[in-house]
């Protein structure tokens, strides 16, 4: 895979994971406890799976991208 494509795949995957993760706190604030608990674990599982199943594959092929992502998050709070 071309490195630019790998970076795009990793960026989209990271954002998807982040967006799904933010649903958990949103549901906790705006839904019943029952609804929150119904969705919390599936959302967390899928969000974690993105990291394990997609990001780890990209980062294993392009370790420098993992460092770049980590550095961006530390400096800017997001991926640039």
Summarize the structure in words.
The protein is mainly alpha-helical and 80 residues long. The chain has three helices and no strands. It has helices at 3-30, 33-61, 63-76. The model has no long low-confidence stretch (mean pLDDT 93).
Describe the structure in brief.
The chain has 80 residues and is mainly α. It has helices spanning 3-30, 33-61, 63-76.
Topology:
Blueprint: H1 3-30, H2 33-61, H3 63-76
Helix pairs in contact: 1-2, 2-3
| Structural class category | mainly alpha
The helix content is over 70%
Mean pLDDT: 93
Taken as a percent bin, the fraction of beta residues is: under 5%
* Uncertain regions spanning at least 5 consecutive residues: none
Q: Whole-number radius of gyration?
A: 15 Å
Sum up the overall morphology in one term: elongated
- Largest sheet data: none
Number of β-strand runs:
0
Enumerate how many helices there are, as a single number: 3
Helix and strand run: HHH
Provide keyphrases for this structure.
single chain, 80 residues, mainly alpha, 3 helices, 89% helix, elongated
């Amino acid at each position: 895979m071309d490195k630019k494509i790998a970076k795009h795949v990793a960026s989209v995957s990271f954002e998807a994971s982040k967006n799904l993760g933010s649903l958990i706190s949103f549901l906790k604030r705006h839904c019943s406890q029952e609804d929150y608990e119904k969705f919390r674990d599936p959302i967390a599982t899928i969000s974690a799976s993105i990291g394990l199943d997609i990001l780890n594959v990209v980062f294993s092929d392009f370790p420098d991208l993992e460092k770049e992502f980590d550095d961006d998050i530390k400096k800017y709070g997001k991926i640039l």
